[in-house]
Structures are given as C-alpha cells and as structure tokens.
Amino acid sequence: MDRLPPLNAVRAFEAAARHMSITLAADELHVTPGAVSRQIKTLEDALGVQLFTRGHRQVSLTRQGQDYYRAVTRAIEVLREATRKLQRRRQRKQLKIRAYTTFAMRWLIPRLSGFHAAHPDIEVLLKASLEPVDFRKEDIDGAIRLGDGHWPGSHTVRLVDNVLVPVASPSLLKAGPKLKRPADLAHHTLLHSSARPDDWGHWLEAAGAAEQVDARAGMTYESSAMSYAAAVEGQGVAIAQRFLVERDLQDGRLAMPFKRTVNMGDYTYYLLTPAHREETTSMRTFRLWLLEQFKAA
C-alpha cells in the first residue's frame, strides 16, 4: 500500500503555494519561516521532485509543483466539506426558506408549529421577500415562489392550484349595492395587491365583465394580506387566491359573491431548491411535509 506524504508538510506546502510566500504561510500556521521551509524540503524529498523555485525573498511553483498544488487543493476541499457535514450532523439542522409575506402569514406560519413538533431536530428559518431567488449568491435552502414553474438553476415542485376568486365581508354584501352579476362590481371598490396587479383583469375577462368594470380602479395595497384584511373590514371586494382565504371563508369573515373562479393553470406556487446542490435529508423532509399539508387541505 502506497504511503501518504507527511501531512504536516503537505499543509505547509499548500499554504506557501496559496500565498506564494514562505513568510505569509508561516504567519498563517503560527510557525517560523524556517519551519515551513523545512517541511517543504521534507515533502520534496519524499516525492523526489522539486516543488518550488526559490529566489531572493520569493518563491514560485515549478510545473510539478503547480500540478501537485491543484491536486492538494481538491483533496483539502473534500476534507473540509466532509468536516462540515459531520459538524452539521452534531447540531440541530437549520433550513433557510424564503417565501412571500402573504403566503408565510396566512398559510405557512399557522402550520409551522406542527412541522417543528413532528421534526424537533429541524429548525425552519423563514424569510419573507419579493426579490428574485439566486441560490448561488444567497444562503438559503429553498424558496416558495409564484410563477410558471421555470426558474433556471432550480428544481421545482408544484404545490397548489392558484384559483382566483372575489371575496368580501358578509356585512358589505348585505349593505349593498347588490352583487347579482359581475358587472355590478363597477359599483364597488376593488381591492388590489401591488404584487399581483393583473388578477382582477384575469377574473373579469373570464367572467365577461371586462368592458363594464375597470380592472385597475379601486385601492391597491403592498401585499395580498393587506387587501384581504381590508376586505374583512368591509372596505371593498378583494381578488383572492382561494387557498389563502379558505379559513376566512369557513369562519364567515369573508364570503364569495360569485361562484365563478379562475384557475391560473401552471402559473401558481412552487417550491424551489438549488439544482447545483444535492437535496439534504432536512430539505426532503420539509418538501414532503409541504406536499402532505396541501394534500390534506
């Protein structure tokens, strides 16, 4: 069996090659420059090749030294990654998940305590943001996004149907003006979310009322959660994603004045995970839990 080279000598070589300096390598390793030089000489003797060309106060890698440095760098990175994995296993696993504010507040957070109770070894760190996802630049494990299912560099899993439906408070519907047909919405305040400005237009077009009702009129809020809250308070009629207002409908805080709904097809919510990284056990557990929650709903 081939013997490994002296590992302390390899460590000294890697530091000196990375810094292109014996002195800086010595500072990093907390030894003297002379000790680094001796370790490199030991390694060269063991390998039977010259790794550095030594000049006045400077060193440079020989061709053999360059080849060996690339191999050593790869080996050290493998060792470093293996070490990180072992250290993570000793700690409580953390999942960093991005989601929209409304999705987080109205759907995910009310259910998250159940996930933590079932999986006490996994902590979900939730971040709300509208910004595009870039897994190569951000330290996140997954993101819940609204779109057509195509995000470069990401694996995607469809979560739920995106069904649009008008909703209003029962008190508003009782007070009037009456909402007998979609064109009657012209006599009410339409409530919008700036994150989804076209939803009313999609629904009115499907309902055949696009000519009678101005899809842009009304009041606009920063998030859908705000428009839903305004609807509960009787300030107008909101266009909602049905799964996000299901509890309000069941509890009577909101009502549907029309049976007409619009399914947005592939334009819906997806779980995104980075394509360049292998899915962790924790992420797989969270993904399966999400799908089970939507299935149960």
Automatic annotation (TrEMBL):
<comment type="similarity">
    <text>Belongs to the LysR transcriptional regulatory family.</text>
</comment>
<feature type="domain" description="HTH lysR-type">
    <location>
        <begin position="5"/>
        <end position="62"/>
    </location>
</feature>
<protein>
    <submittedName>
        <fullName>Transcriptional regulator GcvA</fullName>
    </submittedName>
</protein>
<keyword id="KW-0804">Transcription</keyword>
<dbReference type="InterPro" id="IPR005119">
    <property type="entry name" value="LysR_subst-bd"/>
</dbReference>
<dbReference type="InterPro" id="IPR036390">
    <property type="entry name" value="WH_DNA-bd_sf"/>
</dbReference>
<dbReference type="GO" id="GO:0043565">
    <property type="term" value="F:sequence-specific DNA binding"/>
</dbReference>
<keyword id="KW-0238">DNA-binding</keyword>
<dbReference type="Pfam" id="PF03466">
    <property type="entry name" value="LysR_substrate"/>
</dbReference>
<dbReference type="InterPro" id="IPR000847">
    <property type="entry name" value="LysR_HTH_N"/>
</dbReference>
<dbReference type="Pfam" id="PF00126">
    <property type="entry name" value="HTH_1"/>
</dbReference>
<keyword id="KW-0805">Transcription regulation</keyword>
<dbReference type="InterPro" id="IPR058163">
    <property type="entry name" value="LysR-type_TF_proteobact-type"/>
</dbReference>
<dbReference type="InterPro" id="IPR036388">
    <property type="entry name" value="WH-like_DNA-bd_sf"/>
</dbReference>
<dbReference type="GO" id="GO:0003700">
    <property type="term" value="F:DNA-binding transcription factor activity"/>
</dbReference>
<dbReference type="GO" id="GO:0006351">
    <property type="term" value="P:DNA-templated transcription"/>
</dbReference>
